[in-house]
Specification:
By secondary structure, the protein is an alpha+beta fold. The protein has helices spanning about 35-45, 75-85, 95-105, 115-125, 165-180, 190-195, 205-215; strands at about 5, 25-30, 45-50, 55-60, 65, 90, 130-135, 140-150, 150-160, 185-190, 200, 225-230.
């Protein structure tokens, strides 16, 4: 099966059905990271992922890792930690710091290049990309960001600089997103960390069906307004 070269003059994508089996889900290369193209990609279950110096690569893996917010797995130790949590969790208070944290906190290197940072900043400014921040005092210690598609949230990356900070971000977000009308979180590719938190694999065709229906649904109209999501009362 031949890899598709995208044109800079069209934001059209090939069908995810023609993605390669090896490497799993590689669909196309090239194009650009304009807001219009990124939004078209997310609407079709496609996302960019590439290393510095490589061309832009576009993916739609099969199977797909997803997390239903109400099935988030909280261990007994995490539950005890959260009951005494030293953290405050906010929404859309520091998108730039979160994506920078996700880029910096990678021992194996990062795919979050400056071009990616700028592209998702534009999506954030347009109201499509969102961040969840975890603070210890006034210090950002963890967080996550992603792209909203109606009642589906496409998680992109998370980071943690203190114990359980990224787990706290996802725990608080799952509860908030579910109460706001959110139905599903896209985790892209399953890894041991997301699996331990309740993520599972489903067939790509099933994910695309969920995406088609959920992106038509609206969450609470104030869902993405900046706010404090969690702060332990004394």
């Amino acid at each position: 099966m031949r890899l598709v070269q995208l044109s800079r003059h069209s934001i059209a994508f090939p069908s995810p059905d023609v993605a390669l089996r090896e490497p799993n889900g590689l669909l196309a290369l090239g194009g650009d990271l304009s807001p219009a193209r990124l939004l078209m990609a997310y609407q079709r279950g496609i996302f960019p992922w590439f290393s510095p110096g490589d061309p832009i690569l576009w993916w739609s893996p099969d199977p797909r890792a997803v997390l239903w917010p109400e099935t988030f797995h909280i261990s007994r130790s995490m539950k005890r930690f959260h009951q005494r949590s030293p953290y405050r969790v906010t929404l859309n208070h520091a998108f730039g710091q979160v994506i920078a944290g996700c880029a910096d906190d990678r021992d194996e290197g990062t795919w979050i290049t400056q071009d990616i940072v700028m592209a998702y900043h534009r999506l954030h400014e347009l109201g499509y990309a969102h961040s969840i921040e975890v603070w210890e005092g006034e210090t950002l210690v963890g967080g996550m960001y992603g792209v909203a598609q109606g009642a589906l949230f496409c998680g992109e990356s998370m980071f943690s600089r203190r114990v359980n900070a990224s787990k706290t971000a996802l725990l608080v977000f799952c509860d908030y997103f579910s109460r706001s009308g959110g139905k599903l979180i896209d985790c892209q590719v399953l890894n041991p960390h997301t699996a331990s938190l309740g993520a599972v694999e489903i067939l790509r065709r099933d994910y695309l069906q969920h995406l088609d229906s959920l992106r038509q649904l609206l969450c609470n109209p104030h869902c993405w307004v900046p706010k404090v999501l969690f702060e332990r009362s004394e």
